[in-house]
C-alpha cells in the first residue's frame, strides 16, 4: 500500500469549497465587467440628456 498525504486532500477540499462559495457569491452579488460598463454608460447618457433639458435663467 502506498502512503497517502492527507494534507493534499484537505487542501484540495478547501480549494473546492472556496471555489463553490465564490461561485455562489458571484451569482448573488456579481455583475460582469461588460454589465457594469453598460450600466455606467446608460447612467452617463441619462445624466447628459437630463442636463440638456435643464432650463437656465441667465438674467444675472
Please give a handful of descriptors for the protein shown.
60 residues; mainly alpha; 2 helices; 73% helix
What does this structure look like?
The protein has 60 residues and is mostly helical. The protein has a domain at 23-51. Helices cover 73% and strands 0% of the residues. It is built from two helices and no strands. The chain starts with 5 loop residues before the first helix and ends in an 8-residue tail after the last helix. The model has no long low-confidence stretch (mean pLDDT 88).
Percent in strands: under 5%
Q: What is the rounded distance between the termini?
A: 93 Å
Shape: rod-shaped
Count all strands and give the number: 0
Question: Count the helices. How many?
Answer: 2
Structural class: mainly alpha
Mean pLDDT: 88
Helix content: over 70%
The major sheet is characterized as: none
Low-pLDDT ranges: none
Q: Please give the radius of gyration in angstroms.
A: 26 Å
Helices and strands, in order, run as HH
Task: Write a brief caption for the model.
The chain has 60 residues and is mostly helical. Helices cover 73% and strands 0% of the residues.
List the helices and strands and how they pair.
Blueprint: H1 6-29, H2 33-52
